[in-house]
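Course assignment 3, question 2. Fill in each field.
Student: A.L.
Task: Predict the tertiary structure for the chain below.
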Amino acid sequence: MGPPDPSETAGSSHPSDEEMLQAVELHLGGSGEASRLIAPGTAELSARPLLDFRIDRRYEKRREGIQRSAPGKKLKHVSKQPSYIHLATHHVPVPSGFAPTQPVVLVLQGSVAEVVCAECKGGRQSCGVCGGSGTQTCPENVKCKACGGGSDACWSCAGTGKRGSRRPSGNAQGKSRTDWCRRCGAHDVACPKCVGNGTVACTVCKGKGHRACDACKGSKRFRHEACNGTGFVTTWTAAEISHPVGADHERDRAPAHLWWPTYRTDGWRKVLLKDVTDELPVDLPEPHRERIAPHLPRKEVEVRRLAVLRYLPVARVTVAADPDWVYFAFPDGPGADGGIKVVRRPARPRMVRLGGIAVAAILIAVLVMVLALQMLD
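Answer field:
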């Protein structure tokens, strides 16, 4: 999350080091005279400015010579779309803002034509499965499902034609088959479905050896979807003009212990840079200037930009007489008269001591607990 959006204050200047020290002096309950902290060895001040820079660019890209087609006769429909003659000189308005937009699609004047579909005849196309015949080959005979086409086709010849070559299986004894085997002539032994042959006529083609095509169901031809069954295709040459958006960022974020107070302050300086001729503020710290400057030149096919620069001068002050604390001073309002806010944070040596005390307290508590348990034993 970025800093608040204060009003534009391009002409504001940074508080001086003396003003920052004066604010710290007041925070310490002194007279507010910065000279007390300027004396050698009294205090140290270092600049820790924060930065939030974002530049949005909108580009213009043109692409022509795009071959398009649509099924059917759509000459009137396509001709009503926006058209162009020379794409390089064709003007389209640049979208406002920097939200994503749809490309502008154009039709080259004189390129729209209605042509006969080359892939079909009259909107219909021969079936690719049967080659337009409407039929497919099919086996005349198939294995009998009743006997499985095996030895049970006939209990006497097992479908071989040699009578008595097979004895009925145990589970077949006592059962009656009323059909004469057409292969061996034995009575009451053949499968009633295939009569000893082991095969029966195909139920699909009725033994003819061919059936209606599974794909076209015998119709031989399909409706051609590419031309929508019309037999015609509308063709034209199209072009696209798009305006994609890109963004660059440069940031120096506040450390965790300063994020909340610096986020809430209204002291952020804000500068809007709408063109390459707009200059950076004269009081912008040189390290920030060096990071932002490479982003400012105009890029190829750039047609619009908006750069928002927000920066907050922050001074880190340590006071020799108060080594356990570090003070941070920064503007608290827009303009030179916005005031300076000071926040206090523990210094590293203090944090180390507090951590050591906490660890020692935990160790003592653990030791007391161990001794108490030993006494209970």
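Instructor remarks: The helical segments are 17-27, 35-38, 75-79, 259-264, 286-292, 348-376. The longest helix spans residues 348-376.
Grade: pending
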